[in-house]
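Q: What would this complex look like in 3D?
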Amino acid sequence: MNWMGRKWLILTILVIAVIIPQVVTNKYYMNILIMSGIWSIVALSLNLILGYTGQVNLAHGAFFGIGAYASALLMLKLNMSFWFALPLAAAIAGFFGFLIGLPALRTRGSYFAIGTLCFNIIVTLIVDRWEGVTEGARGLMGIPGPGPIPLPWGSEITFKTMAAQYYLVLCFLILTIFVLRRIIQSLVGRTFRAIRGNEELAEAVGIHAMRTKILSFTVSCFFAGVGGVLYASYIGFLSPEITDYHVSFDALIYVMIGGVGTIVGPIIGTLLIVTIPETLHIAAEFRLLLYGLILIVMIIYLPRGIVGWVKDLKGKRRQEVAWEKS
Amino acid sequence: MVLFFQQLVNGIMLGAAYSLVALGLTLIYGILHIPNFAHGHKYMWAAFTSLFLVVNFHTNYWVSLFIAMIVLGLVGAGVERLVYRPLRNAPHVNSFIAAIGLLLFLESLSLIVWGADFRRFPSLYDKPIHIFGVAITLQRLLVIVAAALFIILLQLFIKRTWLGATIEAVAQNPEGAQLVGISIDRVSSLTFGIGTALAAAAATLIAPVFLVYPTMGSMPNLKAFVVIIIGGMGSIPGAVIGGFMLGLIEALGGGYISTDYKDLFAFGALVTFLTLRPMGLFGKEVR
Amino acid sequence: MGEILTVQGLTRHFGGLAAVTDLSFDVRAGEILSLIGPNGAGKTTVFNLITGTLLPTRGKVFFQDHEITGLRPHQTTSFGIARTFQTTSLFYDETVMDNLIVSYHCRTRMGLWDALFHTGRSRADERQSRQKAEEILELIGLQDRAWELARNIPQESQKRLALGLALVTEPKLLLLDEPTGGLTEEENISMMALIQRVRTRGITILLIEHKMKIVMNISDRIVVLNYGEKIADGSPQEVGNNSAVIEAYLGAGYAET
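A: Here is my prediction, written as structure tokens for the whole assembly.
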């Protein structure tokens, strides 16, 4: 598809996305869409470290949870407004990403995967047991949603309705896509791909592997935190389960099935997996059974996911759109 | 003092079980370089299999252990054939992701088939006996003895039999082994089968001590990985020593410091090793 | 002084095995120096020790009078030492052009902020990367294959591309590990012509090569290794007549093409 064609496609999708709350009034479906939006942000952020930098990070749930709990505590205990809590909590998640990345990224491959998984478990354990701060298994309740934004002409935007919350998540999703895409298409993104492709060669051509990986990991965790904050405000309640490594596995599934290493892939993967089983009312155990099976089949036969497969069918490799523009 | 001995015995028992599970894992990793992340879930299935036999068919405990080993050994070989072999030439991470898929599949299948309840494994050996003033059940002692037996048998198998030598040959030099006519495919399936059978043995031995439930495999799975990372991936002595070390750390740490945080010790140890000595005690140097 | 690289008492042990023992030699600016020796003599290990892929057990490495012993590969590359690998190493899932562009990274200055806000610096860096990539693309003669995937191009082109990646980093010293490995007679000649073109740009070259005809033709000087030790160094004539060298090769050397 050429450049102009793609612009029209994106515009159409945007228009549809904006119109949806006016057309869909069923709360159940709106909920699914909002959750898809939040999980898409998480999947997109995982894709940065996994798809583009090639490191299998299984701690994503922990950073999602850290963002969620950080924002909830900032809002509940320090009475901070959502609009300040969000960037701060995401920064906290990113900061933890940086701290964990320093030792973790000195390992590679399976060691890194297991190390991050263990870190995830440690976080869940701490959140669960540190009752003084996190209320442990009882959970945090009554997390406020975003406060109203005053408009120049006197009235204000409130976030009480589902439609408003949908637009909020949509805005952040678009922002995330925009930022990540910028990074991926820049020279910085190229260094990520170099690490993924051949870390030894990357070092040989002068790329500081450790610094590059930590950058990718930190940004990835920052946006996982953003997802966490949106989740906390939307649901209003948090329990240690949301930091659990099953969240990391979920994010992995969304990314792998949709298309690892593509921008659109994680979004499609999330949409498919969050919406289809819900609409078909498949029971929870069967879902996991299917995901497991699909994951196995996909990694063997379609390792680049659905989007990757479509691209391969088209038979051409994506060229850098940025170059045409500059 | 009594507490110490109690925890010491527990630690040795846990260590024996961990060692056995880790042995299977390290065997698979050492030969095939596959991080079999679904190992713990086959372990779980072994426990359910023997439980099923004992409860529904009243089979002898040792017979059901043997059957569980065979069944899971076959499952392991089948998994190698269907899942890991196609990925042999793909990047390593793909095998890891396939293992995650397998893990999810095995765990949910177990939930569907057996339900989420925690079950007790009836045992003939749960009368406590008293040694040095400490009360331990015979079952716990059996775990230690049986595990030791299996470890010795495995060593003998690797070092003294022709089949074992074949496996070692493939581990050290796959191309060379192929040149002398060894079928990598057969060795892979066999190794996977043996590794899984060892885990199955561990599961059936340990099941009567704790409870049997579908998610019982995830912790041992992770801890087995902790063990082989500490011991050095691919090293048999590493798996054994690492396993006992972990068992003791957990039992003594859990008994003296805190049961709440006892799992943390394993993961703390892992993070420490990964940071300071990623190749483990007996693994090979990287730079 | 004119020495761009000095290796002093370089030693590397692997457990009980001494791969390189007490090796000392210099490379003079602008020359082509060949490192030869029978298989297993430790030549690639020497490269790894210079670039920082391996740490020496003992000994020092000096580049342009600065000590670089123990620096990591990305550091030695930014100082101006580039290398190729014995087994061709490329970013196989990227296009030829993308391979070259990313190799310019150590000469750019942009960071995350520049990327996010599309600053002047990021635009300049992207432009320069592309220019450099195009320049080297032309030098190595792969213009027709610019947008093909590295895994799909023929072996000789892959070897050229590997050389190109090293050149994009703007090195002053280039370490080439068997650049003619697996090439035909014709391909050897064009690869050697390419290496000569590289030399005329003022880049010093340290070459590991097995094919004696090539070594004798192209080298200004030769260092001979055997079992990790230097057994001779000097001009091609001197080395060719050295009895220790002939013995080390046991007749396989000079006759080889």
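A: To summarize the key features: The mean pLDDT of chain C is 89. Strands of chain C lie at 3-14, 17-28, 32-36, 58-63, 66-67, 81-83, 173-177, 204-208, 221-226, 229-234.
Q: Very helpful, thank you.
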